[in-house]
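Customer ticket, subject: "Can you confirm the structure for SPFH/Band 7/PHB domain protein?"

Message body: Hello, I'm evaluating your service for our small team and ran a test protein. I'd like someone to confirm that this is what the system normally returns, since I don't have a reference to compare against.
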Amino acid sequence: MFAAIFFVVLLAVIVLLVVKSIALIPQGEAAVIERLGRYTRTVSGGITVLVPFLDRVRERVDTRERVVSFPPQAVITQDNLTVAIDIVVTFQINDPARAIYGVDNYIVGVEQISVATLRDVVGGMTLEENLTSRDTINRRLRGELDSATAKWGLRISRVELKAIDPPPTVQQSMEMQMKADREKRAMILTAEGQRESDIKTAEGEKQARILSAEGEKHAAILAAEADRQAEMLRAEGDRAATYLRAQGEARSIQKINAAIKASRITPEVLAYNYLDKLPQMAQGEASTMWMIPSQFGDTLERFAKSFATRDDDGVFRYEAPGVDEDTREMAEPDNTDEWFNTASSPEIAEAVAAANAVAQKPVDPAVPEVPERSQQPKAAEDKASSAGELGGSSPAGASPEISFREGEEMDR
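Agent reply: Thanks for trying us out. I re-ran your input and got the following:
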């Protein structure tokens, strides 16, 4: 019985010694080992053998990267505004022994140093700078914390400002300012848009007026050119009509003279015609009285005797001179078929076609040059001048054959 009890006690002592001599440290943790109250070593990730009743695990430390969020801290800015700032610190324990023996509570130490550094940094900036300079604040906080916690075996990875909450009145003022800024930008954009619209409208009206003026200018130029061509053609026609009328009157006089010569009229006939016309001359409204001198018959007698020949019986008789062949040919009737030809000459038709082509030409963007005077009227004038040298000036509308023939007749 005693042996059984001793065996059980011995087995329990062995089990206790085994339990006291083995420590299991999981991955991501580190254990600080003390022997008789003194630090001996730091172990991590595996099974560790301890001296029973001499070695003990002082504390287990998490060596993974940790993220700690601290409560909002009241900080006064440079412009005397109190803001609440939340910060998040990311750190990792590189030396567990320093973290255990260097500081009582490294979490509290990180928090206090973060708050002190935050107040120092934020206190030197205005609220506007704090809201717009978060990256600068994060870098300065990380540098200050990293240098302050290096002796604790900590490595500060990141420091972030989670929130910056100004007072409610300041928030309202900021919101009003933001609203005013947005309204200002909206009004500026609206004004700029209206200005651009007015500029574009003015430019469009300017271009429209320029194009309208260009069109009116081109139309005026074409109208002036058309009037000039019309006046030229009208002048050509008037000149041709005047010339033809003069030629007709000259031809009529020649025909009358030739007819008189060919008919061999005697002075007796002329005297009879004169006496026959006297009553008609007296029928005028302004002719109230006619007086014929008594010597009028004697004058006619002497005038007839000067052109007559006295016969053997003592009577003066008038013998008409002989008529030559040219006078007889002049007295013959002319061919009047061409007198009633109303067709335009080819030169005038070509000039009118050229003027119509210029008038119907579309207006170009550039200012068109004034077309030179058509060469057809000039050619017609040259022909007329050449014909005039032969038998008088010939119009553009007269046929060359007629002008030449009329010139020959006038020469005769």
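A couple of notes from the result: The chain is about 60% helix and 15% strand. Residues 89 and 224 are 92 Å apart (CA to CA). Feel free to reply with more questions.
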